[in-house]
Design goal:
There is one protein chain. The protein is built from 18 helices and nine strands. The chain is α/β, with parallel strands linked by helices and about 425 residues long. A nine-stranded mixed beta sheet has the order 1-2-3-5-4-6-7-8-9, sandwiched between helices. α5 links the parallel β6 and β7. The relative contact order is 0.14.
Length: about 425
Amino acid sequence: MSAKQFQLSDMLISEHQVSVPLDWRHPEQSPTIEVYYREVVNAARAGENLPLLLFLQGGPGGKAPRPQPGNPCWLTQALETYRVILLDQRGTGRSSRIDAALMAQKTAEQGRDYLLNFRADSIVKDCEYIRKCRYQSQQFYTLGQSYGGFITLSYLSYAPQALAGCFVAGGLAGIDASAEQIYQLTYQSVWDKTELFYQRYPDARARLAQIGECLANENVYMPDGERLTPERFQSLGILFGTGGGMQTLYYLIDEAFLEHDRQALSDTFLAQVMMLVNYWDNPLYAVMQESIYGQGQQATNWAAQRVRGQLGGLKGNAESLPLTGEMIYPWMFEQVGYLKPFALAADSLASFNDYSPLYDLTRLAANEVPVVAAVYANDMYVPLSLSKRTAQLTANVQTWVTDKFEHDGIRQSAEVFDKLSTMMNEFSA
């Protein structure tokens, strides 16, 4: 285990790296990978025995935030009470990151089997190794944002004794829902958001339709040389799930066409779109997206694509261009250059039908660990109905249902962590 330390403003930051088995099911025979985390503490309290708060990042495939003074906003609040652990989940950031060069060396089955070691159950075991070896088995509090909430539910299922309390923000997963059931709900959420977007920006409907027509009738290329197809452009609907996402898309399409040629897409527009649809920084988001819903003997089988077909394909017309959200499709591994080396493994993963369970519903029903959860009423990624059901199926959960924030509310406003902290204090009183 290695560590280095530096101070940034009033934060004392320690960097750590540990070796863990790639395959926790057979640790003795498994090769090892590296897992990296930062410990952050208020410098004035560095010598105190503070409670530990483990941050579980959203994703899948997201690395932990890199702390800056005042950013993220929840960190500033947390450091008043906790010693905070910012984990780069395995395969992300500095934790043996999975990239295209690595996957290009593997067959379909080798890639699939490798990726299966990067689900929530393995992340929980990494956390347990760190807790026991680095922190002398001191209990964690956890803060799970989005997919981090999914990991929290796995943690509560398989190592609840490790946890003193759990904060969840936009991450009460549908623990007994299939990928297909989830996408049937999230497609409707995207449509609702799209209609809200058109109401807010009345000229956007015609502009999006014009862009769609242009992309359908011509071969338009982004600065990286890849073609911008209509379906790649439609995927920008993912922005609607974040605070400020609608404004981002509106300002983007506002500069779509050249002033001197209203039929040609501008370079600035194409450059900005390229940065939003390339997956260079986070390929695991695409590759692992459906596998986070995989449990038992049921293959996900490209659920988002199948549900899209059942809904008519969402092709659009001259009057309106429907958008999509966080859904991942097989054609992405053909059109997105950086994802091509992942294609065989992703397809094999989609047909895999022997998943280990991620949640223990019996243990969750008897849960004794205090859990406080922000549930966003208009969440485009984690359906409200499924979050409410999970709260009913899991004992000792208190929810705060709010329509004030989008899915990334905890990153946008200090109010979210402040509210959850108040709830946790009341829970413990």
